[in-house]
Design a protein that fits this description.
Elements: E1 2-3, H1 7-22, E2 26-31, E3 34-39, E4 44-51, E5 59-65, E6 75-78, E7 92-96, E8 102-106, E9 110-112, E10 115-117, H2 119-126, E11 131-134, E12 140-148, H3 153-176, H4 181-193, H5 196-199, H6 209-229, E13 234-235, E14 246-248, E15 255-259, H7 265-282, E16 287-293, H8 298-306, E17 309-317, E18 320-323, H9 325-332
Parallel strand pairs: 15-16, 16-17
Antiparallel strand pairs: 1-7, 2-3, 3-4, 4-5, 5-6, 7-8, 8-12, 9-10, 11-12, 13-14, 14-15, 17-18
Helix pairs in contact: 1-3, 2-3, 2-4, 3-7
């Protein structure tokens, strides 16, 4: 692939990327006066801002995350391209492939909790293979493909969301002190099968973001109320910068809950990883429980159960949340 280095060309591609990501997004807040764009169906937000950079040289500053709150504290990765020329200190680049299609790429380096994720760390945690990008000075650098920017907007959004999920996995692997290359490879196979071109899922209009966030909060409150009714001590205290949905403590069994407002593959993959990592961060052994809407398919139920994770389904009737009480009894008993 050949790097796009001319300032006007970089600006044109950056504008196309912003426009593709913004299509169908909901503005859920601001950071530094810039709107935060949320895609509920992908559980991802993005912000396209600007910074003076080094030596007052202006450049784009693009941040992405998965939690629709506390944006600055919940950035997963920055994808910042140089305004022109070559600057490998910035992680992103626009490049053209042999077919003439324009791509967004990223080196994989990130900062996390007082440490750094190197390119080697990223590759070990995700199993991804980088692509060589050539520069006009004859040099080359390895980058990871993020998105084909000439794809339809929904596909661009999905590709960015997949890369952000990869970055989240690498961050969690660094925090946990272990690599997850096998899991990353398995996820890549699942996501390939769910790509927009093969399933068309991303042609469906996105669901309103406020609905998804409200459901998560209401399910959380309903679970807290149920635990209070059963006199089960519980908390959602943050562990450093990270916050489990709910965990119990005291004399009874220790139970760690992760709530998802959807039961698609991406929701389940995220929940499984979060439960595993939060258990390590809490430095104790927990019964891990996934709280999901009724109707999770058997293709996911089996692997989740094999991983030692219990499932409690819920359904909504009006403004009320109803849990599978028998399943909850087994988890708390």
């Amino acid at each position: 692939m050949q790097a796009i280095e001319k300032r006007s060309d970089v600006a044109t591609v950056a504008k196309a990327w912003r426009r593709a990501f913004a299509e169908g997004a909901e503005v859920i807040g601001t950071m530094g006066s810039q709107p935060v764009l949320w895609h509920e169906r992908l559980r991802i937000w993005g912000l396209f801002g600007h910074t003076d950079g080094k030596e007052a040289t202006g450049r784009d500053w693009n941040a992405f995350g998965q939690q629709p709150r506390g944006f600055r504290d919940n950035i997963v990765v920055e994808i910042n391209q140089p305004p022109s020329g070559k600057d490998t200190n910035l992680q992103a680049i626009f490049a053209v492939d042999d077919r003439g299609r324009r791509w967004l790429l990223h080196q994989g380096r990130m900062s996390v909790a007082g440490s750094r994720i190197t390119e080697a760390d990223f590759i070990a945690a995700t199993g991804l293979t980088p692509t060589k990008v050539r520069f006009s000075d004859g040099s080359s650098t390895q980058y990871h493909k993020v998105a084909d920017l000439q794809s339809p907007p929904a596909a661009v959004q999905a590709s960015v969301a997949t890369f952000v999920a990869r970055c989240a996995s690498a961050r969690l692997a660094k925090i946990a002190g272990k690599h997850t290359v096998d899991d990353g490879t398995a996820v890549e196979r699942w996501e390939h099968n769910l790509s927009p071109e093969q399933t068309g899922d991303y042609d469906v209009a996105p669901r309103g973001g406020t609905v998804g966030r409200r459901i998560h909060g209401e399910v959380w409150r309903a679970l807290a109320t149920e635990l209070e009714r059963r006199d089960v001590p519980h908390s959602n205290d943050r562990v450093g910068q990270h916050g489990p949905d709910m965990f119990t403590y005291g004399n009874g069994p220790r139970v760690l809950f992760e709530i998802k407002s959807g039961h698609g593959a991406q929701d389940i993959f995220a929940a499984v990883g979060q439960l595993q990592i939060y258990e390590r961060l809490l430095k104790s052994t927990y019964r891990k429980v996934l709280i999901v809407p009724r109707g999770m398919g058997p293709a996911l139920q089996g692997p989740v159960s094999d991983l030692g994770i219990s499932t409690v389904e819920f359904y909504r009737k009006g403004q009320k949340t109803h849990f599978d009480t028998a399943a909850l009894d087994r988890c708390l008993g």
